[in-house]
Amino acid sequence: MADVAAIPVSRSGRGRAAALPGRVSTMVRLVVSIAVTLFGLMALTFFIGRLLPLDPVAAILGDNASQEAYEAMQRQLGLDQPLHIQFLRYVYDIVRLDFGTALMTGKPVLEDIRRVFPATIELATVGIVIGTGLGIPLGVLAAAYRDTAIDYFVRIFGLLGYSMPNFWLGLMGLVLFYATLGWVEGPGRIDTAYQWDIEPVTDLLLLDTAMAGQWDIFWNAFGHIILPASILGFGAMAYISRMTRSFMLEQLAQEYVIAARVKGLSWGRTVWVHAFRNVAVQVVTVVALAYAFLLEGAVLTETVFAWPGFGRYLTNALLGGDMNAVVGCTLVVGIIFVGLNLLSDLLYRIFDPRTR
User: Fold this and answer.
1) Cβ neighbours of residue 233 under 8 Å, at least 6 residues apart?
2) Alpha helices in the chain, H assignment, sequence order
3) Of 68, 95, 122, which residue constitutes the final position of a domain?
4) Which of 95, 125, 157 is where one domain is finished?
5) Range of the domain at 245
């Protein structure tokens, strides 16, 4: 019987065997990193809730409550316990997805967030589509025609997107496109006459009405969303175009671009097929981060347009001293950023073999 040790092992088999511990180690580090980040996020939101000059007991009982009622409510909320005990209870509740009860609505905070978040997702998604559709081509063109009129226009246009406050753009947009020209619908997500005719499936109005074939309601909802989404997309376009231009300038300075031109490839093919392909993963990461900023940064835009979304809910919670809602929203925003950063890292590993 042949000696088992004498059986040859292929190089590819040895390579896979050697790579397996490295992959396991990478996965362990990734899980530990996510766990530490989420724990730090929970600690941050807890201490923010304790440091803000908002008294949850006074918000519940009012300023005229007796001392006995105040102390009883404090015991009921667990605020009479030592700080470390409060933190452990807080972590335990968060792990069970219990963010407490919102004072504004009397409902669980997580239920409120589930109710308002689809409106923000829809607004941010349309905004990122606009920002990406404009930002990537403008960034590529600015890099391809560096120091020309096209480049200067894109840079100035992007500077305006960075500089102009969203609330000012929203007010000016309503005055011009709604009140004066009548090109778009007014504040709100949909006209009151239509809101009872929609059967919610995903709570995304454009998607639900399109699937149901309710095109009159679809266009009404589109008329409401296009202006606030364009304002959000304008800011995203500025960020995406600037980063795309920077990535492309680095690639266009590489030797392979000169070699491609020497071989007779057109400038357009060299830029879009060869150079842009090498920055596509980086651009995807930028778009993911821009999307995260739109999800949590639509507060002023939603307030100006009376958009019943996450940002407006958070604003009302801050103004009303509803600490459960404020802390819950802050935690959700942090989880969104962690999730989208993780998605970006995974996309890097999938599309760029050098990072594996």
Assistant:
1) 126, 127, 128, 129, 130, 131, 134
2) 11-51, 56-61, 67-77, 83-95, 109-144, 149-163, 166-173, 205-212, 215-252, 255-262, 267-269, 276-296, 299-304, 310-320, 323-351
3) 95
4) 95
5) 110-355
Per-residue pLDDT tens over the stretch 150-195: 999 999 988 888 888 888 899 999 999 999 999 999 898 999 888 8
Both 119 and 82 in one domain: the answer is no
Q: Are residues 195 and 126 in the same domain?
A: yes
Those residues with Cβ within 8 angstroms of residue 343's Cβ, 6 or more apart along the chain or in another chain:
288
Please tell me the total count of domains within the chain. 2
Burial label for 155, CB within 10 Å (0-12, 13-18, 19+), is middle
Asked if residue 103 belongs to a domain, the reply is no
DSSP per-residue codes, 305-329: TT--SHHHHHHHHHHHT-HHHHHHH
For residue 196, what is the enclosing H or E element?
Answer: none
Instruction: Flag whether 306 is in a domain.
Output: yes
CB 140 within 8 A of CB 243: no
Query: Do the beta carbons of residue 280 and residue 351 sit within 8 Å?
Result: yes
Give which of 111, 46, 120, 71 is closest to 302, Cα–Cα: 120
Q: State the Cα–Cα distance between residues 157 and 164, nearest whole angstrom.
A: 11
Supply the angle between the helices 323-351 and 11-51 in degrees, to the nearest 10: 160
pTM: 0.81
Give 225-259 pLDDT, tens digit per residue: 999 999 999 999 999 999 999 999 998 888 888 88
> Which residues lie below 8 Å from residue 28, measured CB to CB, with a gap of 6+?
none
- Point out the least confidently predicted range of 2-6, 76-80, 96-100, 218-222: 2-6
Same-domain pairing of 192 and 341: yes
- pLDDT score, position 350: 73
Query: Do 202 and 212 contact (CB within 8 A), yes or no?
Result: no
Residue 4 resides in a domain = no
pLDDT confidence of residue 2: 46
